[in-house]
Amino acid sequence: MRNGVNSVLKWAIAAGCAVLLCAASPRAAAQGCAMCYQTAAASAATGRDALRHGIWILLLPAVSLFLGIFVIIYRRRNPRA
């Protein structure tokens, strides 16, 4: 039972650190080139919505691949031989 508690505690600490890191650097997510910013600012509401959807469409496969590889590495970290 003690091992399960340690595992949950480690996950809770990691999640807390991730939340604090994201909250501490709000400007880090807003980096971009000046041309992209000007184009997005000058577009109509439908253009901005299309840009937001495009960002999600490009982000989801990359995050899925990263999480998939992370899960495979996590499961194989301690082989049961």
Commentary on this structure:
This protein has 81 residues and is mainly alpha-helical. Helix content is 78%, strand content 0%. The longest helix has 31 residues. The mean pLDDT is 78.
Please describe the topology of this protein.
Elements: H1 2-24, H2 34-42, H3 45-75
- What is the general shape? elongated
Largest sheet: none
Order of helix and strand elements from N to C terminus: HHH
Percentage of residues in strands: under 5%
Mean pLDDT: 78
Q: What is the distance, rounded to the nearest whole angstrom, between the alpha carbons of the first and last residues?
A: 22 Å
Treating each run of at least 4 consecutive H or I residues as one helix, how many helices?
3
Structural domain tally: 2
Helix content: over 70%
Low-confidence stretches: none
**Class computed from helices, strands and strand pairing:** mainly alpha
Kindly state the number of beta strands.
0
Using only C-alpha atoms, the radius of gyration works out to: 19 Å
In short:
This protein is mainly α and 81 residues long.
Key phrases:
2 domains; elongated
